[in-house]
Amino acid sequence: MASSSTKSSSDAGAVAAVPASPAPAKSIESAMPRPRLSADQLRYCSEALQHFKTKAPQTIRQEFMVLQDNRMTASDMRSRCTVARDSVNISKNRYTDVLPFDDNRVILKQCADYRPSARGYVNASLITTSESVSRFIATQGPLSHTSEDFWEMIIQYQCPVIIMLTRLVDDYRTLKCVDYFQAENGPREFGNICIATKKMETSDTSLIWRSLEVKYKESEEPPLSVLHVQYPEWPDHGVPNDSLAVREIFRKVSSVPPSLGPIVVHCSAGIGRTGTYCLIHNTIQRVLTGDMSALDLLTTVTIFRSQRIGMVQTLEQYLFCHDVIIDELQDFLSAGNSHGSL
User: Region entry Disordered: which residue ranges (predicted)?
Assistant: First the structure.
């Protein structure tokens, strides 16, 4: 779908730093602690599981065809993305056809580009469905000259979590995201912002977890604590081999209260793998609150795409959403049955 002056928007993936390894199934218990659910929540999970397990693959394919048939046209995108297309902001976009809409773009009160016409621009979109579940910021992988604005966004919006679903370099040759976060050898500075890594660990599911502290260099305020998780093994335009790592991210991140700042999710373009994770997270959270409208994934993706173009890019990703949701609901119900009546 997307393209830039030199390449297409493969919503991609590769990391440097910590080598990834396959996930031994035996560690899933400790890596993914199961929450105790109420009787009502178990009932919601059972109803949702029945819905998704009886949904025919052909129905899922037809839904995705509907989504693709209703994709926004290039002319409509241009009319809704005037700030992103301004001459002072063009170079801040990784791909020319993945731009935030004017009406729900993230706006920075201050940024590296102080020109009035820049209008606090960063290629990032606010993604919401309801106030009772997590809000997201879907964004592109930072460029070398937008990393300061990325961290400015994190501080201004008080974002508690960053979910990175890409490698830095894909296939050892295509840059998908600059290194905006690794600071194992001491603090790093991006303009007026300093970040420091306080802890790092790699899980058996190949996830890399970092505890970061972010602050303005001259500020007397305490630093913002940010959890950064990277999933380097999620292939560009594709899906993982199993649901374990995605579900581990969900388990740990979904406990963050929605009242805190939005969760930042990015890959390379910030629409394919980003949209897929947001759909999984949003659907399971809404089911647990008893919102059965969450079972209509077609409508949820339609809402997401009205807030950022192209969210959930491929049929394979749409099918994967169903598989992950089923796995997680089954796990919740198994845990509930083993705990007995609550």
Answer: 1-33
Confidence at residue 302, expressed as pLDDT on a 0 to 100 scale: 98
CA distance readout (Å), 93 to 13, 50, 326: 18, 42, 36
Asked whether 94 and 140 are in contact (CB, 8 A), the reply is yes
Domain-located, residue 17? no
Give the pLDDT confidence of 228-249 residue by residue, as tens digits: 999 999 988 889 999 999 999 9
Residue 150 maps to a domain: yes
Q: Is residue 64 part of a domain?
A: yes
pLDDT of residue 5: 39
The total number of structural domains that make up the chain: 1
Spatial separation of the C-alpha atoms in residues 306 and 329, rounded to whole Å:
27
Residue among 261, 266, 167, 159 nearest 207 (CA): 167
HSE of 49, CA atoms in CB hemisphere, 13 A: 16
Q: What is the DSSP letter of 292?
A: G
Q: How many CB atoms lie within 10 A of CB 198?
A: 11
- Tokens linked to 20: 């990834």
Q: How buried is residue 311: exposed, middle or buried, by Cβ count under 10 Å (0-12/13-18/19+)?
A: buried
* Separation between Cα atoms, residue 336 and residue 27, nearest integer Å: 20
Q: What is the pLDDT of residue 117?
A: 84
The phi and psi torsions of 169 (rounded to 5 degrees) equal -130, 130
CATH of the domain at 57: 3.90.190.10
Read off the tokens for 311. Answer: 């969210």
Catalytic entry in 45, 267, 278, 321: 267
Look-up of token digits 């809402």: 303
Widest pairwise Cα distance in the chain: 61
Could you tell me which residues come within 8 angstroms of residue 82 by beta carbon, excluding any fewer than 6 positions away? 102
Which residues, given as ranges, of the chain have pLDDT below 50? Answer: 1, 3-8, 10-31, 341-342
At 201 the pLDDT is 95
Find the domain containing 71 and state its range: 31-337
What is the predicted pLDDT for the residue at 338? 66
Give the pLDDT score at 31. 43
Angle value at C-alpha 273, between 155 and 72, nearest 5 degrees: 95
Report yes or no on 26 lying in a domain.
Answer: no
**177 included as an active-site residue:** no
